[in-house]
Amino acid sequence: MCHVIVTCRSMLWTLLSIVVAFAELIAFMSADWLIGKAKPSSSEEVDNRTGGQQEPYRPTLGIYGRCTRISHMQFSRRDTLCGPYAENFSEIASGFWQATAIFLAMGIMILCTVAFVSVFTMCVQSIMKKSIFNVCGLLQGIAGLFLILGLILYPAGWGCQKAISYCGFYASAYKLGDCSLGWAFYTAIGGTVLTFICAVFSAQAEIATSSDKVQEEIEEGKNLICLL
């Protein structure tokens, strides 16, 4: 018989698992990993809304994508254009970034799988006599290691020609030059930290769903068990 068991700790672990998976996925797909050096607008380009000169803009560069501005000379305005600069995996700007993409993709795939499984832990707490929470916690720890490897390798690619074109000639491995780090990089770091927190917290979720209080509720014949 299926018992639906919901506790504060198990629900919090499930929500964190979903948030972490989405955060890492969004960061990976974003082009805001590096914010390039400011490019001043031409003195002839005028902002139609204010009538004044447009402010300098800073293009952004991701692992496989980028955002820049294109000119519409007849209208004297600029539009931001975002999209992948690499049409296939081999065109990613640096071998280090290719490795980063592989490690991040592997970690994100594991996290998305765990996030999907975590939704069903309310009904199924074990498979083949193994706790789902413990298995998912182990997988989250492995995913966290993949994410760390990707984030460590990513700065090693700052010396590639693509990064130099955005960050200036002083850019090199682990040196940003004229660039700054964008929100996607910080989101990926935050998601990695939360991944390990989820891995540790999965043990608490397991304890909460197998506590004596839960067993008492099951023995009383309850199918829906909600505990704080």
UniProtKB/TrEMBL annotation:
- What processes in GO biological process is this protein linked to? single fertilization
The protein's organism comes out as: Loxia leucoptera
Does the record carry Ribosomal protein as a key word? no
List the protein's name.
LHPL2 protein
InterPro entries in UniProt: LHFPL
How does the record say this protein sits in the membrane?
A: Multi-pass membrane protein
Q: Where are the transmembrane segments?
A: 12-35, 96-120, 132-154, 183-203
Superkingdom, according to UniProt? Eukaryota
Keywords of this entry:
Fertilization, Membrane, Transmembrane, Transmembrane helix
Q: Name the family the entry cites.
A: Belongs to the LHFP family.
GO (cellular component) term, any one: membrane
Keyword presence, tRNA processing: no
Q: Which Gene3D superfamilies match?
A: 1.20.140.150
**Cellular compartments annotated:** Membrane
